[in-house]
């Protein structure tokens, strides 16, 4: 029967209920926050998803955001050294007349997860599970994980995805009104420091100084380049 301690017992709506009803009538969904779960390492994400699988919430829609180092399945890009991001971008832009067929198969992965969810077969998964499925379906695990973020209730990712504004922007992460959980938060200080730090070698400084000297001597945007030239000179 109806409860006696809230508005439903009298058949009246509270202001909140009325606003939610109005949203539904207008075709808008009421805002439901996501849970962003940040960890220090990718290995810790594996441990947490394994624990999630053992709970009653194993079937909750989720995704894991990670770098191309962990999720790229393109045979050439994934076997390259440190320039995977650049190679991926070049393929997506078709710079050398080649494209990434795995990127064009992204929808296969998101549809697979939607199908599993519809048949109540959905379970918490790990990066390795997604990569393995991506290889099987010939679909990009990196972009699939990003697509799955739209419908996910829980988003797992390393700390810097939440702390670094540039990464947040590139991954289209909006934390306004969301729930943020930081595992082992005593590591945040070091991670935040790393996010706004940059290492540069003396040879790089000298090369930059030579380029800036050329710009200034040839009267190319002197207003912008002179202060940078002064910084390089003082550092070297």
TrEMBL record:
Enumerate composition-biased segments (Basic and acidic residues). Answer: 12-26
Q: Name one GO cellular component term.
A: nucleus
Q: Keywords of this protein's UniProt record, alphabetized?
A: ATP-binding, Hydrolase, Nucleotide-binding
Organism superkingdom: Eukaryota
Q: Which GO terms describe its molecular function?
A: ATP binding; DNA binding; DNA helicase activity; hydrolase activity, acting on acid anhydrides, in phosphorus-containing anhydrides
PROSITE patterns named in the record: HELICASE_ATP_BIND_2
Q: Which GO terms describe its biological process?
A: double-strand break repair involved in meiotic recombination; nucleotide-excision repair
Residue numbers spanned by region Disordered: 1-26
UniProt-listed InterPro entries: DinG/Rad3-like, Helic_SF1/SF2_ATP-bd_DinG/Rad3, Helicase-like_DEXD_c2, P-loop_NTPase, RAD3-like_helicase_DEAD
Residue ranges constituting the Helicase ATP-binding domain according to the UniProt record: 1-232
Q: Which Pfam families match?
A: DEAD_2 (PF06733)
Name the PANTHER family on file: DNA REPAIR DEAD HELICASE RAD3/XP-D SUBFAMILY MEMBER (PTHR11472), FANCONI ANEMIA GROUP J PROTEIN (PTHR11472:SF47)
This chain's protein is named: FANCJ protein
